[in-house]
Structure prediction request, 724 residues.
Amino acid sequence: MFMGYSLGELGSIFAMQAFAGLILFSVFVLMSLGLAIIFGQMGVINMAHGEFMILGAYMTYLTSQAFQAFAPGLYGIYFFVAMVVAFCASGALGMLVEWSMIRFLYKRPLDTLLATWGLSLIMQQAFRSIFGAREVGVELPEWMMGSLAITDTIEVQINGLFVMGLTTLIAIAVYLLMFRSRWGLQVRAVVLNRPMAGAVGIDSERVDRFTFGLGCGIAGIAGSAFTMIGSTGPTAGQLYIVDTFLVVVFGGAASLAGTIASAFTISQAQSTMEFFMSGSMAKVLTLLVVVCILMVRPEGLFVLKVRR
Amino acid sequence: MNLGRRQILKGLAAMPVASAFGASAFFSSSAFAQAPATSAVNTTGLAVTDTEVTVGILHSVTGTMAISETGSVQAEKLAIDQINASGGVLGRKIKYVQEDGASDWPTFAEKAKKLLVQDKCASVFGCWTSASRKAVLPVFEQYNGMLYYPTFYEGLEQSKNVIYTGQEATQQIIAGLNWVVQNRGAQTFYLLGSDYIWPRTSNKIARKHIENFLNLKVVGEEYFPLGHTQFNSAINKIKLKKPDVIYAIIVGGSNVAFYKQLKAAGIDLSKQTLLTISVTEDEILGIGGENIAGALACMKYFQSLDNPNNKAFVEAFKKAYGPNMVIGDVTQAAYLGPWLWKLTVEKAGSFDIDKVAAASPGVAFDKAPEGYVRIHENHHLWSKTRVGKARPDGQFDVLYETAELVEPNPFPKGYQ
Prediction:
């Protein structure tokens, strides 16, 4: 496979390949953070996670249309506004869903699976009715397209860099929120012992609502970012849901650090294997490895130690 | 099985009566000369009355495939409306029953049975994916129905009960490959596809043609699961192999991801030749014209075709469904279905499935938006193949069209 290439060429291909792995890592982290928060902190399996992402993507589409119509001069920065809009829309819908549906099901975790799956079908059909069955094209501002040439042969994608930067920012923000803020302390208290948390005066219902909203909001930002690299259609959320669950389950459901570690492992394995074999085979092998590791360590890579 | 036998018996019993009736009607009344008696044109109990004939439309309007199949439904309804406005079929107005396949193949089979057994449709326009067609095929053969199938597909199939109004693989593939070799001096090819039957069969035909008939080289071939969204590794591999032509048969949401990432990775489609058979104007809506401008597509129809038939068709379509509609290859092929059926019924002088199937070969439609088409003995269409170059506005510039109609060859020798 490498016959007839100079060392320099090979070097730059490997550099670009490493970069491709990092982009995939960022994408995985971005899409699974929201799910990990909801699943890990609340024990709710949110099957509609992909649809919350697509809601974010549609918000991005609407924002870009609005900017084109009313403020074409500011089109270059619409994406930042779009991400805020996407976060607010998905987060608000998430809180509404928690209030109207999820909170009645905390004692029946398997029913949340069914309920959120139903929700995902409702959301898909709603997207189809509102935005049409066809995919919509989200146009990027000029500066976000194309690639930076670092050397003559090494090129890195600008939108890849953007996703990496965004992921880092959000990961740091989530860390600060969960482990350095008063609100995060309350969330962790509720996870560890709900009755005790209630006894010391934490409004656990409010905490639940905001946690669910935060998870959905991050999904919205992820969906907004993915308009750069993927499609925006009523059922596009389904494309991400399998990988998302894979990352969260493999990482150990209750641990955010585990999610990041697992995203790193899976993305590196997949992008390396994809380079040496066809896309389908790489996927099969990745899944096989994950299944084997989960057989040895059913609780995932990282386990949160809880006294039961 | 039981039902089948009963229907045959009923048919036999009805036959002498029908012919007697037909004869008397012919002699007694000249007012019906334009609309022949129902008993004469419908001897097998289809839903045909003196004024109406019922047909079925069977596509997914919900689920994953709704994105693609909506255009076909619109085109078929437009054709039916136009036929009705111009006097109908054998003097009868076409009435349609629409069923939703819901992107689910068993549902397609179930609804096909309903359309044939309960509604007794004289013909059905429908299906999009090969999987849905394979699911309904036994139903159409068992209950003797007529299906007009619009999508370009992998070939390797032929049925008395199906008319394939899209191209089969060799029609679509060979002309395009020949063109890039002659006009872009292509020597090496990199084949990509989504991992299911159509891309795999098509790439197999492409590979045979490249290696055995053109004596050129395939430097890579690979497949991705449906719904795959990360192509950076594949793109790096392409950069390493430096093929003259990227030959891409990627479908659905993956398509959007692939072209966006190709563009982001700095592959300029005005310099790198990319030939696809899976991107029509419909797909470009989702991909975004700026991401795919410069790519070549090989199929039989582009919305920008410059001929009077097509201009009238595009105008009527936009008038019916809104000025922002785009029309892809399959939408046009779906539009042909009702027209070809009307012409065949009029040639056969009967709605009977067997007579329509037998009369189909040789039926020609010269008002087709793509230009003149004709049904082959193998129930596929003779049609021209064209190469178009994607423009940033989502339309194609037609660079080339074959001089002659290309013969459909669903079982190509030397390509399997």
The first helix of chain A runs from residue 7 to 42. The two ends of chain A are 54 Å apart (CA to CA).
